[in-house]
Design goal:
The chain has helices at residues 35-45, 76-81, 113-121, 138-149, 152-198, 206-217, 219-234, 240-257, 263-288, 293-312, 318-384, 425-428, 431-448, 465-478, 491-494, 521-533, 539-549; strands at 2-10, 13-19, 24-28, 62-69, 89-96, 102-106, 109-111, 124-128, 391-403, 406-415, 423-424, 453-457, 484-487, 499-508, 511-518. Among the domains are: 1-123 and 452-519, P-loop containing nucleotide triphosphate hydrolases (Rossmann fold, 3-Layer(aba) Sandwich), CATH 3.40.50.300; 182-335, no CATH class; 521-550, no CATH class. It starts with a strand and ends with a helix. It is 56% helix and 19% strand. It is an alpha/beta fold. It is built from 17 helices and 15 strands. It is elongated and about 165 Å long.
Length: 550
């Protein structure tokens, strides 16, 4: 409920502080006194756009604060989501600077107007003669029916599951597209992977393989060179071993005659030993070498395979091919996991689909049972407001789609006159009829659902007599369930309030101010009497006012 309102430097208001009680509060005042200014100020708190034209004094800041008790509104999750400090007593503040720029705060935390407006929708409902568009919206009509059907908790749960279903259905569709493409690529990727796998790749294998091919392809030249080398080492008289043997003997004789030559035989022994080893290695190598065309073919094929793979994958080194193989392996694994995820999502969406169907059927069953009661109650209420011959028809039809309110589609039909044809409510009801129907619906809703504070803005204009009494009675009944404000010109309505404020203007040197004051019982009698008879207070008018208050 709205517990307090503070206004500084707005329109004709210099400063105003007012506190409100639960129940029904009536606001009266002469035409032009500034009742609409109060609504204008409150609208700013609720997120309406503003500019410097709202300022009374263009040199000062305009500040409007509204205090709400939000204990029973279930707004903790909204505050958490918006990262706002939650408090059972919440203060919304709007400031407009002389430059025309405005700022909004919730419990001293800055917010943008979108957040403010969404919060305000749960706190205040300003109901005017022109607020009838909501009545023709299917979502609102379902809200009314579901309130009477006891469906509201089930609708809330259905919408949570529907949100999950739509999210997972979207994810499933996206995954199906990716999976389809992945399956198309899978065979090719598997071929590439197998091709690289069969190549038995090793990081440093290319150079040795190239050397092996070079050796096998030059086997005769190598054999000829080794044979020539062996001949030079082994040949009698001119072979290296024979020459070194002779040199050993000559140095041995020389060292016996000169000690300064003692190291030379030792060094020569090392040369002789190394030459002997070389001779043995060449003999072994020559024995191993044989012309093997098959081995050459195999080596050349393997080398050509590596060259082809390098070119195919635009790689420079074997290590690049190894990385490519790892990448392809990962892609193949992802494809397998994608299939597992796809099956999991299909299973979950199927389960959610089943839940939604079951809940939709239960919602429909409850609605069909509640329909006659809703029609009866609405016809009863509007009959008391002068629409005795008005009739309603509400048709439900099943839908194959999951809609926001279930799997039902609704059409609201209306006939204002006895024997008249039914037509869609939004097409055949007049503005005045829609206004009364909306009042009837909100009166019904207030008994079944926690509604925001409602402000009736002169919806009783042009109404008199017994109908005005009934409208006043309906508002009073609503006030048993919720906080109700009514700005009215009717004494019957004004008298029903638990709290009564009067808006008036005062003149002073600098101009005009709008002010508001709470009326005590004597003040209320005088105010209601003026509403009955005009400015002149007659005994009859005063007695009538007392009777209305009693």
């Amino acid at each position: 409920m709205l517990t307090a309102l503070s206004i500084d430097n707005y329109a004709l208001i210099e400063h105003l502080d007012v506190s409100f009680d639960a129940g029904m509060t009536t606001i009266t005042g002469e035409t032009g006194a500034g009742k609409s200014i109060l609504l204008g100020a409150l609208s700013l708190v609720l997120g309406k756009r503003a500019d410097r034209s709202a300022l009374k004094n263009n040199e000062k800041k305009c500040i409007i604060e509204a205090e709400f008790n939000i204990t029973s509104y279930g707004l903790q999750s909204f505050f958490d989501k918006q990262q706002l400090d939650y408090a059972s007593t919440t203060i919304i503040r709007r400031e407009i600077n002389p430059s025309g720029k405005s700022r909004a705060f919730v419990n001293d935390t800055p917010v943008n107007l979108d957040v403010l407006e969404r919060l305000a929708n749960d706190l205040i409902d300003i109901h005017s003669q022109h607020q009838t568009l909501t009545l023709t919206k299917t979502e609102f009509q379902f809200q009314v029916l579901d309130a009477l059907a006891g469906n509201l908790p089930l609708v809330e749960e259905y919408q949570k599951i529907l949100a999950r279903y739509r999210q997972e259905q979207k994810e499933l569709e996206q995954l199906q597209v990716r999976s389809s493409q992945a399956q198309k690529d899978r065979d090719y990727n598997q071929f590439l992977f197998d091709e690289l796998e069969s190549a038995a790749l090793e990081p440093d294998m290319l150079a040795p393989l190239e050397a092996r091919v070079e050796e096998l392809s030059s086997i005769q030249d190598i054999q000829q060179s080794i044979s020539g080398g062996l001949q030079r080492i082994e040949a009698e008289e001119i072979g290296l071993l024979h020459v070194l043997s002779q040199l050993r003997m000559e140095l041995k004789i020389a060292t016996q005659k000169s000690s300064s030559l003692e190291e030379l035989p030792i060094r020569l022994e090392n040369v002789y030993a190394e030459l002997t080893d070389i001779h043995s290695d060449l003999q072994l190598k020559l024995a191993e070498l044989e012309n093997d065309p098959q081995a050459l073919n195999l080596a050349e094929e393997r080398l050509q395979t590596l060259y082809s793979l390098l070119k195919k994958h635009q790689a420079t080194h074997i290590a690049d091919l190894i990385e490519k193989k790892k990448f392809l392996g990962t892609q193949l694994e992802d494809t397998e996991h994608q299939q597992e995820r796809l099956l999991e999502l299909e299973k979950r969406t199927t389960s959610l689909n089943k839940n939604l169907v079951e809940m939709g059927l239960q919602l429909r069953k409850n609605r069909l049972q509640a329909l006659p009661n809703l029609v009866e109650k609405m016809e009863s209420i509007i009959a008391k407001m002068g629409m005795q011959d008005a009739r309603f028809q509400i048709e439900l039809s099943p839908s194959t789609s999951f809609l926001l309110q279930g799997q039902d589609e609704m059409q609201f039909f209306f006939s204002a006159n006895k024997g008249g044809k039914f037509g869609l409510l939004k097409n055949v009801a007049s503005g005045g009829e829609l206004s009364r129907i909306m009042l009837a619906i909100k009166a019904l809703l207030s008994q079944y659902k926690k509604l925001p504070t409602i402000i009736f803005d002169e919806i009783d204009t042009g109404v008199s007599g017994a109908i005005s009494d009934e409208i006043a009675h309906i508002m009073s009944q609503m006030a048993s369930y919720m906080q109700v404000f009514t700005i009215t010109h009717l004494p019957q309505v004004a008298a029903k309030g638990n709290q009564h404020f009067k808006v008036y203007k005062t003149l002073y040197n600098e101009g005009t101010q709008t002010q508001i004051k709470e009326l005590n019982r004597d003040d209320r009698i005088a105010e209601i009497a003026k509403m009955v008879s005009g400015k002149e207070l007659t005994t009859t008018a005063l007695d009538h006012a007392k009777e209305l208050l009693n």
